[in-house]
Design brief:
Protein name: Acyl-CoA dehydrogenase family protein
Strand order of the largest sheet: 1-4-5-8
Cofactor: FAD
Helix content: 40-55%
Family: Belongs to the acyl-CoA dehydrogenase family.
Shape: globular
Strand content: 15-25%
Pfam family, one: Acyl-CoA_dh_N
Order of helices and strands: HHHHHHEEEEEEEEHEEHHHH
Structural class: alpha+beta
Radius of gyration: 21 Å
Keywords: FAD, Flavoprotein, Oxidoreductase, Transit peptide
Number of domains: 3
Number of helices: 11
CATH topology of the largest domain: Butyryl-CoA Dehydrogenase, subunit A, domain 3
């Protein structure tokens, strides 16, 4: 009988055994990049409320194949869903803002063009977006309509062969640095998507300041005042709310993984601190209450990672349902916040310092909890799936 492998505190369930060498290579490449290019600087970026060198970071991410990573063709890497998830895990272990940059670029803006755009639109935008030369944003949420996109007021009207867009979008990641905005608007024929070059007259994207979360990220309002677009700007295969909701489901999948990255970084910080911080003559990790906290955090963290892996394999097999993505987003973000808060209690007063990542991750996750569907919306998605009864209204 062969000897059991040693217990690994970093991988207590042996989940690495589920990954093939290519999966591990992707994970390690992104982890190394984040350790070199993000972690030494992100506390300062967060404190200053800015993301300097964003375009340079985007080009590096593009060279690494992380932009539009799970898409095929047009310069995209064509990676598996699990590999994309592992990239999100490592990026958000550094900071949610970096993962948001990649998610909005690839899973929202690029995915919308790839899934619903014309061949001309794909050829024009996707290679430059995959390389990081062009940044994209995704305009769906409005100042008065977040969880109810069906109430959107942004509208597009035909004038001859052109379209004229008017409206406002809010809380748009990458907005003020984007070269193209995928904007959703009401039309006489239903909700349509438009690829809007941001230099178009009447388009503006003022940056939102004074945030207490996602501070190392660019967040903007989109203002559309008589933005005139040619007919070829409309995404021809997108008609109705199912199109943007399909994009959101793809982005939510990345959050299932990414939130566990923030949780892992906070857990590892608390574990390391507990083994070195002494009170009452010994490390606090030697006290029962601290060990109970660490054990509970480890259980929820690695259950969340196992859930993310399972959903990734279903996505790769083409069997992942939107309700299952809601399951993952609801559970993993909620548990990630709980892990961060518990980690903060282990660090005590030091837990509020930017010398440690815990409070930064906890604050970021408050935004992650809300965007791409609030907790309440995902509860209702699952409630409807379980009962067959509609409870949204």
């Amino acid at each position: 009988m062969s000897a059991l492998p040693p217990f690994d505190p970093a991988d207590p369930l042996g989940l690495d055994d589920l990954l093939d060498p290519e999966d591990l290579a992707v994970r390690d490449t992104v982890r190394s990049w984040a350790a070199d290019r993000v972690l030494p600087h992100v506390a300062d970026w967060y404190e200053r409320g800015e993301l300097p060198g964003l375009h340079e970071l985007a080009r590096e991410l593009g060279a690494m194949g992380a932009l539009g990573m799970s898409l095929t063709g047009y310069g995209c890497a064509g990676a598996s869903a699990v590999q994309y998830g592992l990239a999100c895990l490592e990026l958000e272990a550094a900071d949610s803002g970096i993962r948001s940059l990649v998610s909005v670029q690839g899973s929202l803006a690029m995915y919308a063009i790839h899934r619903f755009g014309s061949e001309e639109q794909k050829q024009h935008w996707l290679p430059r977006m995959a390389s990081g030369e062009v940044i994209g944003c995704f305009g769906l949420t409005e100042p008065d309509h977040g969880s109810d996109p069906a109430g959107m007021r942004t509208h597009a009207k035909r004038e001859g062969t052109d379209w004229v867009l008017n409206g406002r979008k809010m809380w748009i990641t990458n907005g003020s640095v984007a070269g193209v905005a995928v904007v959703w608007a009401r039309t006489d024929e239903g909700v349509r998507g438009f690829a809007v070059p941001t230099e178009t007259e009447g388009f503006a994207a003022p940056e939102i300041k004074h945030k207490l979360s996602l501070r190392a990220s660019v967040t903007s309002e989109l203002v559309l005042d008589d933005v005139r677009l040619p007919a070829e700007a409309v995404l021809p295969e997108a008609l109705g709310l199912r199109a943007p909701l399909n994009c959101l489901s793809h982005a939510r999948y990345g959050i299932v993984w990414g939130s566990m990255g923030a949780a892992r970084a906070s857990f590892e910080s608390a574990l390391g601190y507990a083994k070195t911080r002494e009170q009452f003559g010994r490390p606090i990790g030697g006290f029962q209450l601290t060990q109970a906290k660490l054990a509970d955090m480890a259980v929820e963290l690695h259950k969340g990672l196992l859930l993310a892996y399972h959903l990734g394999r279903r996505m790769d097999a083409g069997t992942l349902r939107p309700e299952q993505v809601s399951f993952g987003k609801l559970n993993n973000v909620r548990e990630a916040i709980a892990i961060c808060r518990t980690a903060r209690t282990i660090l005590g007063a030091n837990g509020i310092s930017l010398e440690y990542p815990v409070m930064r991750h906890a604050a970021n996750l408050e935004s992650v909890l809300t965007y791409e569907g609030t907790t309440e919306m995902h509860q209702l998605v699952l409630g409807k799936a379980l009962t067959g009864l509609e409870a949204f209204r």
